[in-house]
Amino acid sequence: MPEHTEPTPRRTTSRGAAGVAAAATVILLVVGVVALVLGLRGTSGPPQPAAAGVPTTSTMTSTAPTATPTTPTTKSTATTPSTARTPGTGTSGPSATPGQGGTPAGGTGIGPFLEASALTSIEIPSIGLRSSDFVPLHVQGDGTISVPGTAQEVGLYDDGPTPGQLGPAVVAAHVDTPSGVPGIFAELGKVKAGDVVKVSRQDGTHLTFTVDRVASYRKSSFPTEAVYRGDFTRSEIRLVTCGGPTDARNEYRDNVIVFGHLTSGA
């Protein structure tokens, strides 16, 4: 485990592209986030999407994390932020209306986004999920990321974007309890590409993310860059839980991850 560097808080009211790039770099310094322990035991096991040694979409060329995330051996083909890009003024609310599509004024290639705001609810209609019980997740002293305290809480990685900001907002929850009682993300593996994830925020906005893909990864091959870095030219979301068979310690072998992007909001 490399030496842990405390990440810089991401909650600011001004979002220049230089700050976004710096924050993305900070996130990649944290090796401890490469695998989330979000379900300890299961009975027959939760629903499983297709295994993803290699993603089926063309946006990523590799899913395996490197030993030192700051110098990955393979890179995402998605556009990475540049200090030459300025995504709006960031001084008086959103720089563009979510769902408009296209390119904001100035031709920067950066999609619509909003300022930071806390979540008040999340809903996935296709699996009947709805929750308003949120807790912040942080990097701990040992370099690992914290997890929700109960199986019904939904955690938001507090050192990254909130849903609606540029980049991937990472939301994680347990698949079950140690005794096998289903958690809030018990059915996450049933989500399909094209399904929607709806979130409401404290600022009164209601956003819809469309699922791009859902895949299962071995925790030993957690796609750190794809989950925590993603594409900082648009607003994205990641939903993470545990899955797969249990090992000799009765802990889940895999992580189930939903990848989506912002498609509408008001």
From TrEMBL:
Residue ranges, compositional bias (Low complexity): 55-98
Residue ranges with Gly residues bias: 99-110
Matching Gene3D superfamilies: Sortase
Chain ranges passing through the membrane: 20-40
Residue segments, region Disordered: 42-110
Keywords: Hydrolase, Membrane, Transmembrane, Transmembrane helix
Source taxon at top rank: Bacteria
Protein name in the entry: Sortase family protein
Source organism per UniProt: Terrabacter aeriphilus
Taxon lineage: Bacteria, Bacillati, Actinomycetota, Actinomycetes, Micrococcales
